[in-house]
Amino acid sequence: MKRWNSKFVNWLLLGMGGLILFFFFYEVLPYHLLHREQMILFLFSPIELIQYFNNSGGLARLSGDFLTQFFCYKGAGPLIMAVVLVSWGVVVYKLSFPYLGRWAWFVVILAVIWETGKECGLNYPLSGTISLIGIGLVYLLCRFFIRKPLKWGVPISVFVISLGYWLWGYGNWSSSWYNTPDLRREKMLAIDSEFYFGHWQKAQKLLDEDNQASLLSTYYRNLYNAQRNQLPDKLMSYSQPLSQVLFLPISPSSNYIMIYAANEAWFAIGDMTMAEHAAILGMIFSPYQKGTRPIKRLAEINLINGDDAAALKYLRLLQKTLCYKRWAERRIPGNLSPDVQQWLKRKRELISQTDTLRLSTDVSASLIHLLNNNRDNFMARDYLLCFDLLNKDIASFVDHYQEFAKNMVPSGIYAEALLIYLAEKKTSAEEIKEWKISPFILNEFKNYSKLYQTSNGNAGLLKATFGNTYWYYFHNALIER
């Protein structure tokens, strides 16, 4: 009876530990797991599977990648993490109980917390934990053979250890020994993922809840507003760390998460050359130089460009996956599903029919090229004009406004910026009327100018009344040249 009670307590503790681990990853780090799935590409083909065993630890890596691919399903990632970490705890308990008795639970708790901390890192593979489980099972098996009065106990153990090393490796010790959950990073991954999957309501809710402005969150907030033709109306209603929040910079100092996200704005606007450039760089600088997310995006880009051969190269890879096979088959050229056909039609209306040479860092040239091919691309127009304004390049703004938005009635920051230009030229009142700027904005500009002069440009006083105007930004934002 006592032994039965002991087993019951053990199972109860395991169950409680599993539930705690499940809810930890489900509630605290769900997007962390989803991001890790996007960084791998598990191909279910004989050749790819055999390649796992070219080096030691092949079974651990194969098992880890196989399970990680299911992180794309809600709840599957936390469940897998809970099962794997509980299994690790069971192995530690089996190894230490003969020597520590009930104190083995203390070792188990420490070992599971330690391994959970490592799993909180973005670059620590699931195979790292599975490798430890495999090593533990090998030692348990060796202990079984050595304790038996068998003549071949030691030779068998040596063989088991050798085989175990080939199958399970020796663990992954390249990552930090412990990572605390990075909740800020989790928030950024959540915004990035929801935008990528087109869940606009979830993305908007996450942005509304984000009280700490960051480069990535402002970038996506601008993209969200631009897709609703509201970018100029809302540009000054939140902090703008200069023009890099319109198009994320790609440089040697950029992390791969930012590079991945950089293609989203270009893809939405219709510049597939720049989108492809960012997607490829994101894949190159990611931990494993592959991933389902960039492969899917590269397939979409080439479908939009009409390059079926290049699109098939990526789609055939995805056909060899378990989770994205159906996604790929619906996009095979010549066998497109109706919804994909409609999506392609909309995206192809934005792209350029001609090409031009330009630097990848020359944002204006890329946007002007898009507009020269399609004057109705309102997103490209707003991005170009707002790019000029965030750089405080009033001369370029006026030139581009007259070229691509001359039929508009200026409002919001466009009208505010035009008044700066007209004031610098000392334009007469009669000429100002020709720009059709509303009397309200004209009156506000007079009030701002008066307060600016009387307060000697006091930023605190100006912000209280005019903090959401372009005039305040123009006088107070620091531009790095």
Automatic annotation (TrEMBL):
<dbReference type="Pfam" id="PF19529">
    <property type="entry name" value="DUF6057"/>
</dbReference>
<feature type="transmembrane region" description="Helical">
    <location>
        <begin position="126"/>
        <end position="146"/>
    </location>
</feature>
<dbReference type="InterPro" id="IPR045692">
    <property type="entry name" value="DUF6057"/>
</dbReference>
<feature type="transmembrane region" description="Helical">
    <location>
        <begin position="97"/>
        <end position="114"/>
    </location>
</feature>
<protein>
    <recommendedName>
        <fullName>Transmembrane protein</fullName>
    </recommendedName>
</protein>
<keyword id="KW-0472">Membrane</keyword>
<keyword id="KW-0812">Transmembrane</keyword>
<feature type="transmembrane region" description="Helical">
    <location>
        <begin position="12"/>
        <end position="33"/>
    </location>
</feature>
<feature type="transmembrane region" description="Helical">
    <location>
        <begin position="152"/>
        <end position="168"/>
    </location>
</feature>
<keyword id="KW-1133">Transmembrane helix</keyword>
<feature type="transmembrane region" description="Helical">
    <location>
        <begin position="71"/>
        <end position="91"/>
    </location>
</feature>
